[in-house]
Amino acid sequence: MKLFQQLFAFSLALLFSACSITKNISNQPPYNQLIGKKFVIKEDMYIFKDDDASLYTIAPQDSGINNLPRFIDPKYIGRHIHSLTVITIVPKGSVFSIIKVIDAIGFETSFTEVLIAFDNVPSIKNGIVTSEILNWKNYPYTKIWGDPPIFEAKLVEPLQSDGVWWK
Fold first, then answer.
1. pTM of the full structure
2. Burial 14-44, CB ≥16 within 10 A → b, else e
């Protein structure tokens, strides 16, 4: 009986360690202020998909992500490199909108993620993860949006024609 209890406890621990909860918090303040806001990227960036992830990710050149080519080059589009696939290159000047904000809570990590969609890139079903371009000094985004900016200022800026909502 003692062996059964130990196996049961181990199984539960293993099950819980693999679980995470994802919650859409787009309608909650202050995140609801972001939905639909537009931004412009200031340099070419990769959109890639990791084999272990369900969403696509955007990353700038020289991001330091393992297996992602260091410099932006069209020859990598469509290539599977170890654990990730380069989907496309989004050119400098491309405009994106914020479509969703999610909260992911696991047993070891918890984070808030902003999902985006580009005006000039074929639609990707659930949005593109922005963790590589977020301004983590403003995490978890409890201040007024954009003060300091939610995205790294050297990589992304608000679309001027969208109004001065960020200050």
1. 0.77
2. eeeeeeeeeeeebeeeebeebeebbbebbeb
